[in-house]
Fold this sequence. Notes:
The protein has helices at 11-21, 35-46, 50-63, 73-85, and strands spanning 23-28, 65-71, 89-92. The protein is an alpha+beta fold. Strands 2-1-3 form a three-stranded antiparallel β-sheet. The termini are far apart.
Amino acid sequence: MSKKEKLNPGLDEEVLTESIEKHQIILYNDDVNTFQHVIETLVKVCKHTYQQAEQCAYIVHFSGKCVVKTGALEKLIPICTTLLESGLSAEIY
């Protein structure tokens, strides 16, 4: 490919940077919290719709874990901290 064919030379670098900065909050199953508490917490903290939160709660219940939020690390840290303070079991990966 010649230099003329490369329309956006900064695009490759931008895409690589975005993929490196993506992290995930993983919510884990526990025997302590009710479905309602998990759902309400996900709606409040992660800004899920009720339906999204309910689906995550079922995935966590049956699979043991679920990705509940993705994004840049600096944005996920306070969200994960709030989930932990609410009694949920979560970590950033």
